[in-house]
Amino acid sequence: MTQTEKVIEILSDRLEFDPDDLTPEMKLAEDLGCDSLDREVIAGELEHFFPVDIPVGAESEWVTVQDVINSATP
Which domains does the chain show, CATH number per domain? Predict the structure, then answer.
């Protein structure tokens, strides 16, 4: 599984979307209904699965799925 596929899996599980329906340009809030609690949980999942440290509050800067994918890159 690639990094992008794992991030898509994390997002689809948390936001209850089919992973095949998620695209990098989708907007978290507008398209997927992702709220601040969802973002915090997703950030924790990224830190668990990838060697990254996401600073507190950085997830509030995410706008698109691609932003989340980029955060999983060490």
Answer: 3-71 (1.10.1200.10)
